[in-house]
Each structure stands twice: as structure tokens, then as C-alpha cells.
Amino acid sequence: MIDDDASVRRAIRRLVESVGLRVEVMGSATEFLRTNRPEVPSCIILDVRLPEMSGLELQSELAANGAPIPIIFVTAYGDIPMTVRAMRSGAIEFLPKPFRDQDLLDAVQIALEKDRLRRRRDAEMSVLRDRFRSLTSREREILPLVVSGLLNKQIAALIGASEATVKVHRSQLTRKMGARSLPELVRIAEKIGIPGTNPRET
Questions:
Q1: Rounded to the nearest 5 degrees, what angle is found at the Cα of 167, between the Cα atoms of 166 and 169?
Q2: Beta strand spans in the chain (E)
Q3: 132-166 residue pLDDT tens
Q4: Model pTM?
Q5: What is the phi-psi region of residue 52: left when phi exceeds 0, alpha when psi lies from -120 to 50, beta otherwise?
Q6: What CATH number matches the domain at 6-123, 3.30.565.10, 3.40.50.2300, 3.40.1160.10, 3.40.50.1110?
Q7: Tens digit of each residue's pLDDT (9 = 90 or more) over 14-32
Q8: What is the rounded distance in angstroms from the CA atom of residue 66 to the CA atom of residue 118?
Q9: d(CA 116, CA 134)
Q10: Do residues 75 and 96 touch, judged by C-beta distance below 8 A?
Q11: pLDDT tens profile 70-123
């Protein structure tokens, strides 16, 4: 929770801790940027007006650095253009002070679930990329042909190999990628950005 008003920090800390969540409070955006953040689902409750760096500037800084932590803005000085800018940049909520306690708690739960899902997707992508890196160069060559729906004999003709060789490579790459079927392999390839080849173009 980042707010330069100590009384606000105390009040929000008590509120969020009342539902069993851990809270760290800070008085400025620069203090937050100097702090090591735990690798757990989290969000920022952020005031717009802060010393040195505003809440909106912090939002832009985090986005530029590839740190997509969900943000809930709270402010006594908000206006429509400010709200629109914050929401277009991905804010979960923009709450004017004073706000209802439940509105903030609801926003926190939404933000935490969003961050939880992002972390799960990131972990899944990391595993898939590691699996792709384990493929041989030949298997990487065959993968887009396989997910395009080409038969082994068609792939063999394209790459200048025997059908039996293609069958072995196909089996190996499917196993390494953790796929139990062709449709699952297609979904995995799409997730990691492996384009298929249009069979009509081959």
C-alpha cells in the first residue's frame, strides 16, 4: 500500500489485514521501487498524488519494466481524464476517497486473482519453453509441419527424410513437449508461438 498519509496507510493496513492478507505500507513510489517484492500473488493499493513520483508515473514505470502487478488506485483528487488514463493502462479499480471498505476489499480480491492467474500462465509458459529448447534441430523443423496436420509421408517428402525417420522424430517431439495427442500438441505450439504451415502451400 503506497500513500504519503500515515493515517491512511494505517487504516488501509488494518482493513486488509482484517481479512487475513499480508500488507506492506510505504510512503512513496520511490520507496516501493527500492524494495524487493516477494514472488507471491500481490497487488498495489496506490495513491495518485505522491511525492517525487506520482501513482500514474509509477504505473507507467512498472509497465515499461515488464512488471505487470495489478494496481488499485485510491485518491481524493481524481477526475475523469485521470481515471480513464489509469484504467486504460490496466488499473483494476479507481476508488475516490472516501470509499466503502468492501469496495476496496473486493478490488483487492480481483487483483490478487488476476495476478495469481498471470503467475500460473507464466510458470506454464516457462515449462513449455524449456521443453521446446530440449528439442533437436530436426524436431524443431518438423514441429510446425506436424501441427499443420501433415502426414508423415508428406513431411518426409518436404524435409528429404524417410517416413520411418519422421515417425521417430514425431514421436520424440510429442513426448518431449508433454503432449498426449495431436490436438494437445497443436495447443502447445500455439501457446509458444510456433506457427503451423498451411498444407496447401506445401
A1: 65
A2: 44-47, 71-75, 93-96
A3: 999 999 999 999 999 999 999 999 999 999 999 99
A4: 0.77
A5: left
A6: 3.40.50.2300
A7: 999 999 999 999 999 999 9
A8: 13
A9: 28
A10: yes
A11: 999 998 876 677 788 888 888 999 998 889 999 999 999 999 999 999 999 999
Helices 55-64 and 80-88, packing angle to 10 deg: 20
> Which CATH number is associated with domain 134-201?
1.10.10.10
Please list, residue by residue across 135-164, b when 16 or more beta carbons sit within 10 angstroms of its beta carbon and e when fewer do. Answer: beebbebbbebbbbebebebbbeeeebeee
Domain boundaries defined on the chain: 6-123, 134-201
Sign of CA dihedral 30, 35, 36, 37: negative
pLDDT tens by residue, 157-174: 999 999 999 999 999 999
CB 128 within 8 A of CB 191: yes
Residue type present at position 25: V
Residues belonging to the chain: 202
pLDDT band at 194 (very low <50, low <70, confident <90, very high): confident
Region of 63 on the Ramachandran plot (φ > 0 left; ψ -120 to 50 alpha; else beta) = alpha
In angstroms, rounded to a whole number, what is the distance separating the alpha carbons of residues 84 and 76? 16
